[in-house]
Amino acid sequence: MTKRVYSASLSRDFESSVKMDDLSAPLLDPREPVDTLPLSVGDPVVCILGSGDFSRSLSTRLLSCGCRVVMGSRDPGRLAPDLVPAGVELKTQAQALEALAEAGGSLVFLALYPEHYPSLLPLKALLSGRTLVDVSNASALQHQGQSNAQILAQLFPCSSVVKGFNGLSAWTLLTGAHDASRQVLVCGDSPSSKLAVQSLCRRLGFSAVDVGGLCAARAVEEAPLHLFPSWRGPLLTTTLLFVCFYLYAALAHVLLPFLDRGQNNLHHLALVTVNQALPAVALVTLALVYMPGLFASLLQLYRGTKYRPFPDWLDHWMCARKQLGLLSFLCAALHAVYSVCLSIRRAAGYMILNAAFRQVKQGVADSWEEAQVWRSDLYLSSGILGLGVLSVLALTSLPSVGHTLNWREFTFVQSGLGYLSLALSVAHVLFFGWDMALHSWAYPYFLPPLFLLSLVLPCCVLIGRLLLLAPCCALRLHKIRRGWESSRHQPKERAETQALSGDVQKKVKGSVKHGKSLRQRIYSSVRPESESREWRRRRRRRRRRRLISLFSFQTQGKAKVKVVVNTEPSPTRPLQQHVQPLVTSLAVTLDWDFIFDTGTVRLHH
Length: 605
Ligand SMILES: NC(=O)C1=CN([C@@H]2O[C@H](COP(=O)(O)OP(=O)(O)OC[C@H]3O[C@@H](n4cnc5c(N)ncnc54)[C@H](OP(=O)(O)O)[C@@H]3O)[C@@H](O)[C@H]2O)C=CC1
Ligand SMILES: [Fe+3]
Hints:
Elements: H1 2-20, E1 45-49, H2 53-64, E2 68-73, E3 89-92, H3 93-102, E4 107-110, H4 124-127, E5 131-134, H5 148-155, E6 160-163, H6 170-175, E7 183-188, H7 191-203, E8 207-210, H8 217-222, H9 232-261, H10 272-303, H11 312-319, H12 321-342, H13 346-362, H14 370-396, H15 399-402, H16 407-433, H17 450-469, H18 471-481, H19 491-499, H20 502-513, H21 518-526, H22 532-540, E9 548-555, E10 558-566, H23 573-589, E11 593-597, E12 600-604
Parallel strand pairs: 1-2, 1-4, 2-3, 4-5, 5-6, 7-8
Antiparallel strand pairs: 6-7, 9-10, 10-12, 11-12
The chain binds NADPH dihydro-nicotinamide-adenine-dinucleotide phosphate and fe (iii) ion (FE).
GO cellular component, one term: endosome membrane
Membrane topology: Multi-pass membrane protein
Subcellular location: Endosome membrane
């Protein structure tokens, strides 16, 4: 009680202080808790219309959280008694709403499909003034048109509609929220109704997220319909790569030998060919993870600024890097398992026996080849290390792990270790190939071996990265990423050409193209065509009589232009009159500060 009086007096003080000095008052009252949602409060009586799966799961959960539940069905007698959770008051729809009104409750959940909402119109009077919670999902992704919740609000204008709970399945409601991350998106136009639903959410153990007014309902309704939208592109790319590599390997090692020599290698298709395609896909996909970063760096170097947006395709590609990396990891892991299994399959046993038999027939006692031993050891070691580093990358891209790293640690793992993994994978393939690429038998039917094809993109990425590490590129890139811009792309250039109009603009644009200095540009822009002869004559005398002095200088990447026009008495008075208003208007349009003082215009930017 004392506490309540104390807080009431505090808030009175706070209000008066706000009135006294609005600007100095803090945005939030520091004495009030930021989260004002009460934890234990929520409507103790809830009505659910409909007696289906969602209704029964929700009522079970509400009961377990201490709420009274009244369920309204079109035909309560039709339901098997053991289907309705014990403790739920099953009534007709009208009786349920009357019971809710008697108990002073206001929350009505509509656990019906939206096409059945009009069947509730006879209950309009009973629903008036109540909060209708629309739990329905969209039937298809449409991104336009009215949402179910908006249609419901139109049907019942005297009730307030809140959208929510549609992201929870009946199963989740039954089993409960095991972690705090179970979010319930809530939206509605009435703040008090929304608050009541949010409070109930918290009471049920979910975290409510207010996503705005009822106009956001479509997005909330469609949210559960999305099927891995960010994975579509990467999955398609990986699948296409796999199909291409698989068909290529099948053509080179199965189909053509069969057609040419009748050699039956069909059994390769099940395991060997898959294991030829998988590492190629893993390697190329990993290269695709680091390629957009290279393109972005090259683009920034070329443009000399980081403030111009990347093209859409590059943006999308950059956003798909995480998914591409995880798919690359999947392919690499599958390749590792397939490779381990290669030696335990029946065909491998036969091949070893045949080789041993041939060796005995040839009288060879020792088949040890030092070079081949090194090759296979290095091949395996680099492969295992590459997969290990890739696993670290995959782990850190999981949100729960990634969030424990600071930005520098995350960049180190994703970029530094990522390139290490790519280099180790390239080494793994190179050790696999060894000197194979130098022999003509590695090119059956003039088809280059698959490992050679899969190396092209990763090698380009690694070489590109090494080139970018060269001081001339790295220093410039570092400067650009710290906000530096090359004079070519500074905003003043664009502003300047945009600000001028007509003939002057054409001339300035032309001189920008030909790389003239600002001084030359302003000279050429102020020079009237008809006076060109006069100008030439004046330019010859310029050293003697400095008509206009223009200085441009740059500091720390930001262009500053200082223009000084001397308007002291001189024989070129008519020209001064032409120059002065032009420079003044230029200064105004470019938003430069300028001072006009005793015949001298000074411009600073
Ligand atoms: N099931 C789930 O996991 C989830 C469902 N939802 C949403 O919840 C709502 C209900 O889903 P769910 O419980 O699975 O569906 P059900 O089919 O299991 O239940 C729907 C209920 O609507 C009532 N009903 C059926 N036909 C009509 C009609 N012609 N006129 C009026 N009422 C009718 C019935 O109740 P009665 O006969 O008692 O009147 C029926 O039990 C849907 O909008 C769905 O999108 C949202 C998230 C998850
Ligand atoms: Fe391998």
